Amino acid sequence: MKSTANLPTEPTTVEQRSVVETSQLTKVYRTGFWMNQKIASLKNCSLRVHQGETFGLLGPNGAGKTTLLKLLLSIVRPTSGRGLLLGKPLGDRATKQKIGYLPENAYFYDYLTGWEFLQFTAGLFQIPTEMQRQRIPLLLELVGLSQSAAKNKQLRQYSKGMLQRIGVAQAIINDPEVVFLDEPMSGLDPMGRYQIREIILSLQAQGKTIFFNSHILSDVEKICDRIAILNAGELLCIGSLDELLGTENISLEEFFMQQVGN
Ligand SMILES: Nc1ncnc2c1ncn2[C@@H]1O[C@H](COP(=O)(O)OP(=O)(O)OP(=O)(O)O)[C@@H](O)[C@H]1O
Ligand SMILES: [Mg+2]
């Protein structure tokens, strides 16, 4: 088992229990024919996300947001540094049962209906058929998809907004404690973005911890308890909007521009 000695100490209050903790987490990709080119996608990232909060990770294209998410989910391995997810080292098998994930530009199975896709995902979590029958309609209602569309249309016939909804539904099929959403509002029209925001708010109301990547500042402003800004793999700041903007009297957009230096 990996040592966790260098991680920040546990907070004392229940509300402040950390769901995500990283310490000096670093990812250097190797590319090129000889694998001799290095891309430092994440550099010494140390942060915490508390239980029950909605946490927004901001940053321009290529900042390292998806890389951080993939590290937390053990889709890629860190080059150095450590992390804990629900108190367990990254990659812990039992923890995977307690998390949900909507990937960026998710690829879904074109020839399955939405309903079949949710059944397939539920099967991966070994959710019994009887429970699936109860849970899938509830999820469809939560994400605003009709049962007839879910049962009769194949995913290749879904609009971008419908795919995002089914994507969110599959991310929470196992009733996870923590939900990771990579750009859940990207490519959606204002109504679609509003609806995804509403879904996130309802997950928030259920006490879920939500970690999402975005570069849509207005969405983040509306729903996040705390945010962090990444730029070129470096964590520039972390805190609540009040903490970050409070004394400055500027908008999140202005603050963001100042931080990333454009
Ligand atoms: N598999 C990979 N191999 C090599 N380089 C990669 C790989 N994945 C990401 N990168 C590089 O790592 C850096 C960070 O990419 P990442 O996808 O994490 O950024 P991002 O903040 O999610 O960007 P976006 O907002 O465009 O989604 C980029 O320079 C990217 O080219
Ligand atoms: Mg990304």
Order of helices and strands: EEEHEEHEHHHHEHEHEEHH
**Mind summarizing the main beta sheet?**
6 strands, mixed
The chain-level structural class is: alpha/beta
**Shape from CA axes?**
globular
Helix content: 25-40%
Spatial gap, N to C terminus: 43 Å
The number of strands is 10
Any overview of this molecule?
By secondary structure, the protein is of the alpha/beta class. The protein has ten helices and ten strands. A six-stranded mixed sheet has the order 6-7-8-3-9-10, with helices on both faces. A four-stranded antiparallel sheet has the order 2-1-4-5, with helices on one face. Strand 7, helix 7 and strand 8 form a beta-alpha-beta unit. Helix 4 packs across helix 6. The longest helix has 16 residues. The N terminus is likely disordered. The chain binds adenosine-5'-triphosphate and magnesium ion.
Keywords:
single chain; disordered N terminus; 262 residues; alpha/beta; six-stranded mixed beta sheet; 35% helix; 10 helices; four-stranded antiparallel beta sheet; 26% strand; binds magnesium ion
Write the layout of secondary structure elements.
Layout: E1 18-31, E2 37-50, E3 54-58, H1 65-72, E4 80-85, E5 88-89, H2 93-96, E6 99-102, H3 114-124, H4 129-143, H5 147-152, H6 160-171, E7 178-182, H7 190-205, E8 209-214, H8 217-223, E9 226-231, E10 234-239, H9 241-245, H10 252-260
Parallel strand pairs: 3-8, 3-9, 6-7, 7-8
Antiparallel strand pairs: 1-2, 1-4, 4-5, 9-10
Helix pairs in contact: 4-6
Bound molecules: adenosine-5'-triphosphate and magnesium ion.
Magnesium ion binds at residues 65-66, 104, 182, 213.
